[in-house]
Amino acid sequence: MDSPLRSEQVGWPTYLDIVWAGMVTAALVFGADVIAQTGPLLHAIAAALFGTMAGLLLRFWPAGRDFGWANRATLLRGSLVITLISLAPFSDRLGPWLWLYGVLCLLALILDGVDGAIARKTRSQTAIGARFDMELDALFILGLCVAVIALDKAGWWVLLLGLMRYAFVIAGHFLPFLNDPLPDSFRRKTVCVWQVATLMVAVLPPASPGFATWTLAAALTLLVYSFATDMHWLYQRRTPT
User: Fold this and answer.
1) Could you read off the pLDDT of 213-235 as tens digits, one per residue?
2) pTM of the complete model beyond 0.85
C-alpha cells in the first residue's frame, strides 16, 4: 500500500516518462536492426508493442501522481524487453550476436528484481505498478518462446509457456472466482524465474534442440502444476452464488 504522502506526491507528468522510454526503445531497436538487418518489420513490431504499453499506462495511471522510481525502472526494463521481443522472430539471423541477446535477456531478468527492491525501499508499492511488472514478465516469456521457435530449438507447443498467463486471464471472464487476489507465493515466483531461465538457456548456441525440448517440457509441467494449484486454491475459497 502507498503511504499517504507518496500517494499524493506530484512529479513529472506521465507522458514525459513515456517520451524518454520511447527514445530509449527507439535507440535499442535501431541497434538491433543494424545487427540483424531485419528491415521495417522489426520497427513496426516494436512500435506496436511500445504504443500498446504507453497507451495502457496513460489510460490507467492516476492523473497527477508521480510515476515513481520503481516504475521508471520497470519502464526501462520494458524498453529492453520490447526490443528483445521484437527481435525474437529474427533471432536465427543473429549468429554470434546470439550471445549478446542472451546477456541482454539476463539483464532484463536482473532488472525484474530491481524495481521491486526500489518500491520496497521507498515504500511506493502500488497495485498498478505490480500489475505492470507482472504483465511485462508475461510478455517477456512469450517473446522468448518465439525466439526458441525461430531458432528451431523446440516446436510450436512451447508457446504454451507464454500463453498460459493469457489463458488464465481469459478464463477469469467466465469464472469470476479466478479474479480474486492470490497470496504471495514463493512457489509461483520460483516457477516464473525457472521459466525465464530455461528459455534463456534454450536460445544460447550451445543448447541443442534435444536439451531445449526436455528442459522446456519440464518447465511447462511445473507451470501447469503452479496454475492448477492456484486455481484449486481460488476455487475452494470462491463465494457461493
Assistant:
1) 999 999 999 999 999 999 999 99
2) yes
Greatest Cα pair distance in the chain = 58
- Split at pLDDT 50, 70, 90, the class of 140 is very high
Angle at which helix 69-87 crosses helix 40-60, to 10 degrees, equals 150
Cell numbers describing residue 27: 535507440
User: Could you state, in order of their start, the residue ranges of all structural domains in the chain?
Assistant: 4-236
Q: How many CB atoms lie within 10 A of CB 3?
A: 12
Question: H helices of 175-207, where?
Answer: 186-203
* Residue 110 CB neighbour total at 10 angstroms: 10
Cβ-contact 126, 65 below 8 angstroms: no
Q: How far is CA 159 from CA 138, 166, 170, in A?
A: 12, 11, 16
Please check whether the domain covering 4-236 is classified as CATH 3.30.530. no
89 pLDDT band (50/70/90 cuts)? very high
